[in-house]
Structure formats: C-alpha cells, structure tokens
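Hi there. Long-time user, first ticket. I'm pasting a complex I've been working with (about 417 residues overall). I'd like to know whether the download I got is complete or cut off, because the file seemed smaller than I expected. Thanks.
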Amino acid sequence: MSDTIVIDGGRRLEGSVPVLGAKNAVLKHMVATLLAPGRHRIENVPDIVDVRIMTEVLRHVGASCRFEDSVLEIDVPDAPAPEAPLDLVRQMRASILVLGSLLARCGSARVALPGGDDFGSRPIDFHVRGLEAMGATFELDHGVLVASAPDGLHGTDVFLEFPSVGATENLLLAAVLARGASTIRNAAREPELEDLAEFLMKMGAKIDGAGTSTIEIHGVPDLSPAVHRTVPDRLEAGTYLVAGAMSAGTVTVVDCVPEHLRMELAKLRAAGCEVSTTPSSITVTGPERPQPVDIATLPYPGFHTDMHPQLVSFLSVADGTSIVTENIYAGRFRYLGELGRMGAQAVADGQHVVIRGVETLSGCEVDACDIRAGAAIAIAGLRGEGVTTIHDAAHIDRGYQDFVLKLASLGAAIERH
Ligand code: UD1
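Hi, the file is complete. Here it is re-exported in full:
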C-alpha cells in the first residue's frame, strides 16, 4: 500500500460509519490463545498492520493463523516455542504480553526487551515484579529477557503502583494457569481488559472483578479453546467523531459502545458539540468553532491518552486557549511540530500542551509520527485550507482499517497516493 494520504480540506463530513473490534483488545486475545492448545476463533477483528505483526509473533511460537472476513482462527500447538524475537517486539510493543502467557504455559520465555519508541521509554518493571512475585526469575541475556519458572507459577497478591494496562494484562494471563489464587490490586479498568477477561473466562478461567480495581483469579490446571467477538474500538469511534466535529459536520458512529467514551464525549460537549447516543451508536455535530476546554489524560474511565492528539487538533481551531495535560505518556508530543506547520499554535510545556486557538489551518506536507498522531494530522487536514499531504501514512494503518475509505464515505476529499 502506498505511504501517502492526500486531503483537500474544507468539506463538511456527513453520514454514518461502522467501527470494528478494538485493536487494543484483539492483540491481547491473540496472546491469550497461547494458554490453550487447539483452535480458537476471534470475530470482529480489524485488518490492521498490528494484527498482522501479532500473527507473525504467534507463527514464530508455532501457532497457525487464518484471517478472513474479520474472523481470525488460531491453532495453538501442544508445545509452543517460548520465544519472541527482537524484530517483532521492536515493531510492536504489545508483543511483550507473550511473557505472561508463555511463562504460564511453558514455564519459560525468551522475549527481546523492547527499547523506547515515539512515546519515550515504556518501562516493564511492574510486569517483571508481578511475575517475580508469582515465582518467576528473570535475567537479561544480550538484550533478551529470559524468564523461567521451572516449577510453574503460583498465585500471589500484587499491588500495582499505577493501574498499568499492560502489567494488569500480563499478570492476568499468567495467573489464570498459576497454582492457587491471585489478587491484582489497583488494576487497570479499561474495557479492553474486561473483554480479555471475558475471553479467558470462556476458555475456562476463573476471574472475578475484571473492570474494577481489584481482580481475583483462581488458577486452573488447563484451559480450552474459545470463540469470542471483540469489543468495539472506542478509539476508532472517537477518531471519526472528532473528524466530523472538526469539519463542523454531523457524523454517526455505529456498532460502538457509547459508555466506553463517556469522558471523551463530555469534553466534546464542553467544546460546543451536540452529542446524542443510542445503546450502540453516537452522533456528534461540530460547532463552527469549538469552545476551548482543558483536558487531562488518565487511566479509564478518565480521558484516554490515545485520544489526546486528535483533541489537540480539534482544539487548535477553538475560540480561545485550551490546556491538555498528558499524564500517561509525557513523550507523545512529536506531532505538535507537524500541526505547527499547518498553522496551529500548540506548544508543549513539560507534560502540558498549551493550545491557542487560531481561525484557520492551512494544508501542507506533514508526517504521521505514530498511529494517533497520524489520525490527528488527518483531522487537521480535513479542516485546513488547501491540500494536506501526509507522509509515512502507514503508521495510520497500524490502528485503522479502511481509514481513507471511511472518511471518503463521509464526504471527505481524501485519497491514498
Ligand atoms: C497504554 C494505555 C492503554 C492503551 C495502550 C495502547 C493507559 C493507562 N494505558 O497502555 O489504554 O490501550 O497504551 O495504546 O492509558 N508503567 C511503568 N512500568 C510498567 C508499566 C507501565 O512505569 O511496568 C507506566 C508507563 O510508563 C505509563 C503508565 O505506567 O506512564 C501506563 O502504562 P500502561 O497502561 O502499562 O501502558 P500500555 O499498556 O502501553
């Protein structure tokens, strides 16, 4: 696929668009399949680059995967190879989650240690400390994290310093097959994590409290393959709603769960959008110019860090000054330089972005730095005067299936070149 998206700005978006399953849930379901040999079936799977990379990780471990019409079938062998190589872990941070599953299933794991990325460093100390409390030992062998638990893992009581999504998932994946009971306190409460727990329970895991801050797990000796439909992607939904709002148009997102976007919708309302919901759809009409609002990203149910760049784009044309505070990944500001080239006045000061609203943005050549930054820049391009050319658009494909087609179906003048 070509790597450039071209947008001729200034069209109002109108219409409705469906969303698929959540990237941040389906990648975890894929890892969870390693816990039980046999054929699993995951439905509502988006055809995005990150799913393809995770498919490679599973193949490396010995599983075979078939992906057709949003359905992913995974055959897991009786004896997986407990290893995830650097080239795959480097391409996608979520690969680190194989640590918990492989340790639980095989008693050992060799996973290349991920370095930093565009968000700055993404530490895994909570993952490692929690797994150590379950009886695993770790050593670093030439950049590869070597984990072992030759006598198997045992249940434990872990208190997370921060409700980390990745650490909660890794510990949950390990605990379902550990001997005895585990409790994860100050656990992440994200809907994608609750969806992972639902999948694990269909496999036979005993889990209580997923979606709350205290998750209790009773380890079982083995699990069986399962069929599961992935929870809708709240980030894909939110991105198209902000795109519609930015164009001062009206966009309806269908097949989503409005409750999962409560905080994000509250901020859109505060910025002057009209918002209405049904049990499975959200409609947003954008104002001619947004009102300024202040936002702080927080763990769920707070404002999602992965919606921050899109909102900064939107607020860049507000009638006043907004402040967005990034509490999860303070390093995710590279896209501000790109927005600045389009005329936005948004500057980072520590973990805060101060956005002085301007009346118009102008199209120019920009780079998509990561998935959400790419989406944010496309949103700016929809409003900008003239043509915006987004290079490195492949970043957007990591998180959005048919991004260009969906925006075009809403009336955007957007093409892949
Ligand atoms: C983050 C998002 C998650 C999203 C995912 C993919 C949050 C809280 N998490 O999850 O919703 O699905 O990106 O885009 O919004 N940390 C440590 N040590 C660790 C683990 C984490 O210090 O061992 C820190 C991180 O640096 C970060 C915070 O905890 O500041 C949250 O990290 P975490 O939730 O684990 O991040 P992801 O799993 O990447």
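A couple of notes from our side: Residues 23-229 form a domain with the UDP-n-acetylglucosamine1-carboxyvinyl-transferase; Chain fold (CATH 3.65.10.10). Residues 125 and 167 are 9 Å apart (CA to CA).
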